[in-house]
Specification:
single chain, about 180 residues, globular
């Protein structure tokens, strides 16, 4: 496992971490079962979505080999910039509230759309998806679980800064991919 895989995983996990912190803000006491639910849902979707993106992209690789690095750069930069933008604007929709199955599914899919695009980018680069998917799932689970507790204690300080950091990491990785192929 290389440093880029770990950085991608942390970058992708920041949305889920931020949502977990925001949810922790709304609770005086975080139950371990609630933190586990959030961690499992977010971790699972962050692990499976890059696989779906990778499988979709694997079917188109031959068509775009000449400019695939530009697509990877564009997708990662777009995702990173969007994360930064969304963290700056005030968004009350990120509060989970009651941890119903429906709410967890919607938030898990919403926070893992970026992972789908990253999986697509990795397929264009002919990179393996196994290590990034597993690493992203584990890191997202861990940070989401932890985020519930941090949110209830320190969330007002971390709130938007975490997503900004994740966005910056993804943009830097996109630029690095582009520079390596030019």
């Amino acid at each position: 496992m290389d440093v880029t895989t770990i950085l991608i995983a942390f970058g992708l996990a920041m949305d889920s971490f931020s949502v977990s912190i925001t949810n922790g803000l709304t609770r005086k006491l975080v139950k371990t079962t609630d933190a586990l639910k959030v961690g499992v849902f977010f971790g699972f979707f962050q692990a499976i979505m890059p696989v779906f993106g990778w499988l979709a992209g694997a079917n188109f690789v031959e068509l775009i080999e000449g400019f695939d690095h530009w697509i990877a750069f564009g997708l990662l930069s777009f995702i990173g910039c969007r994360m930064i933008y969304e963290s700056i604007k005030k968004d009350a929709k990120k509060v989970i509230g009651k941890l119903s199955l429906g709410i967890l599914l919607v938030l898990s899919v919403a926070t893992s759309i970026d992972a789908l695009a990253v999986g697509l980018s990795l397929s264009f680069l002919k990179a393996s998806i196994v290590a990034p998917a597993i690493t992203t799932g584990i890191i997202t689970f861990s940070l989401s679980f932890l985020g519930m507790y941090l949110g209830s204690r320190f969330g007002r300080f971390f709130k938007n800064k975490i997503e900004i950091l994740g966005g910056i990491i993804l943009v830097i990785i996109g630029v690095n991919i582009l520079l390596e192929h030019l």
